[in-house]
UniProtKB/TrEMBL annotation:
It comes from the Bacteria. The keyword Transferase applies. One of its GO terms (molecular function) is acyltransferase activity, transferring groups other than amino-acyl groups. Keywords: Transferase. Residues 2-167 form the N-acetyltransferase domain. The lineage of its organism: Bacteria, Bacillati, Actinomycetota, Actinomycetes, Streptosporangiales. This is RimJ/RimL family protein N-acetyltransferase. It holds the Pfam family Acetyltransf_1. SUPFAM superfamilies: Acyl-CoA N-acyltransferases (Nat). The keyword Transferase applies.
Length: 175
């Protein structure tokens, strides 16, 4: 059985090992403060600076809580009832098992049931069709495209902004 627990500093080396190039770094983190090659120090530093605004979790097997299988985070706006889902990543060994869906649905439940957020948003690169389909299946609505926002390995990448409101999520769960 898979469960989420808080992201720990001891998870950092595993997560760093899942990022195999500049493209996968940006696919995971967006055009952020991280630089290629990603290293433990960068990730640990971001944990310290973002701790007040961003919460992160690690997916693990119940019987192997020290072996990370996935990662996800939620950044909250301090003066609004909104959150931003981000940094969704599944270890290469755990892909294809539905872990991405488990990560997202777990954070949706936390965002709407425990944190009582009104809105959950995310950005996903337009060419990441697998993620786009997952997010749509889980209730997120495409709200717009930001064209050619990130230059990655000689190609411009566009992002799709998506959102989900608490009443939409509750209505979908009833059906």
């Amino acid at each position: 059985m898979i469960e989420l627990r808080d992201f720990l500093p001891s998870d950092v080396p595993d997560l760093v090992s899942w990022i195999d190039g500049p493209g996968s770094l940006i696919l995971w983190s967006g055009p952020s403060a991280f630089r290629w090659p990603l290293d433990d120090a960068q990730l640990l530093s971001s944990l310290d600076t973002e701790r007040r605004r961003r919460r992160s979790w690690t997916a693990v097997e119940t019987n192997a809580p020290d072996t990370p299988l996935g990662h996800i985070s939620l950044a909250r706006e301090p003066h609004a009832s909104t959150g931003r889902l981000g940094r969704v990543l599944v270890s290469p060994q755990a892909r294809g098992r539905g872990l991405g869906e488990l990560l997202v649905t777990s954070v949706q439940q936390l965002a709407f049931n425990e944190l009582h957020l009104h809105r959950l948003s995310l950005g996903v690169f337009a060419h990441n069709e697998r993620a786009l389909h997952l997010y749509e299946r889980l209730g997120f609505v495409r709200e717009g495209t930001l064209r050619e926002v990130c230059w990655v390995e000689g190609v411009w990448w566009s992002t799709v902004e998506m959102g989900l409101l608490d009443h939409e999520w509750r209505a979908a769960r009833r059906h």
